[in-house]
Amino acid sequence: KYLHKITAPCMDKCPAHIDIPKYVEEIKNYQYSDALATIRENMPLPAVCGRVCPHPCETACRRKNVDDSINIMVLKRTASDYEWMHKLQHPANTVPMKKKTVGIVGAGPAGLAAAYYLALQGYRSTIYETLPEGYGGGMVAVGIPAYRMPRHLLQRDIDIIQSMGVEIVYNCRVGQDISLAELKQKHDAVFLAPGAHRSKPMGVEGEDAGYKGFLKGGIDFLRDAYMHRPTGMGKKVVVVGGGNTAIDCVRVALREGCEASYLVYRRSRAEMPARAEEAHHAEEEGIDFRLLTNPIKVVGDENGWVTGLEVVKQQLGEPDASGRRRPIDIPGSNYIIDVDVVIVAIGQGPNPILTQSGAGLELRKSGNIVADPETGKTSRKG
Fold it and tell me: Strands 198-199, 348-349: parallel, antiparallel or unpaired by DSSP?
């Protein structure tokens, strides 16, 4: 088996292996369209990756050995915004289209990227998306708040992909409105990219008591806020979790009108998976961070309303399987944070609707579909 190794450490760290040195050089030479073409060879959503990418490339940047890493992420935005602001057209797809078609489940980044590169090879594809029109983009659209990712620029990237010969069918949930078997009949191949839009539960007392003000998931809260549905926001909110979704939730809660917003995370700031700059912005906005703190009970009153979250303070012990130090309860350090809304944002998993409708798909314990790491093939042919 041949393993290719990329010599530029930034390119090696980039999950899409974009030719970073090449496009940075092109921007240096004012060749913005060439830089954009270089980016799009490996990733078709430059406006998105120029704004909300976790940019692992920058942690591996060689310039860091001298002073600070190059601002690789924002340079994508520079190239992309140049095309948009100068009203330049994306080059037309001139490849002759073949007879075979592909069905794609989900209009998130993976589904859109698959459709784009299939179109460049002459394959027409149809994307089936659960959400209504105007909400394409998956978690980028309904998970990342609009102050971080302007919707019109996300939509522009999607429009470009559609112009390549890609159709998007909105309001269509695979496994409910159309079955996997029907997709298999309609298309020569099927690509599954449904995302992980289900929040994981905390597993604490009072979580399943049905209290009003207990919002099951951060992902659902962010989606409702973006789609202008009622979010159930109160005066004081506590969000449990330490990732980017949790940070988005505490910041969106302020924008939804709450007066006090708390973040409860069981490890220290150094172990937080959220981007450091996101956490920093949240602090600037007045979010109250309760670190090394673990929830143990959702507290409610006799009328069925949330009145608080009981928590216990933590200390860090030995490292666990993830390499991070395991938090341990400090006996007798329990206290209650007085709030009327609790939001859980400790991780996401897949919705089983799709897999329940598709017989013969081998699953992992987590409910994720088993796929070959090299090819992405599942246990079902095609």
Answer: antiparallel
CA distances (Å), origin 228, targets 242, 244, 256: 25, 21, 10
Q: What are the Cα distances from residue 123, in Å, to 12, 113, 316?
A: 29, 13, 52
Which residues, at least 6 apart from 99, have a Cβ–Cβ distance to it below 8 Å? none
Least reliable range by pLDDT among 31-35, 166-170, 224-228: 224-228
Residue labelled with tokens 């796929």: 371
Q: What is the dihedral of CA 371, 375, 380, 382, to 10 degrees?
A: 150
Residues with Cβ within 8 Å of 190's Cβ and at least 6 positions away in sequence, in order, are 102, 103, 104, 105, 180, 183, 184, 382
- Nearest alpha-carbon partner for 55 in 20, 6, 14, 16: 14
> Pick from 227, 151, 173: which is nearest to 353 by CA?
173
Dist. CA 50–CA 71, nearest whole Å:
10
Mean pLDDT of 206-213: 92
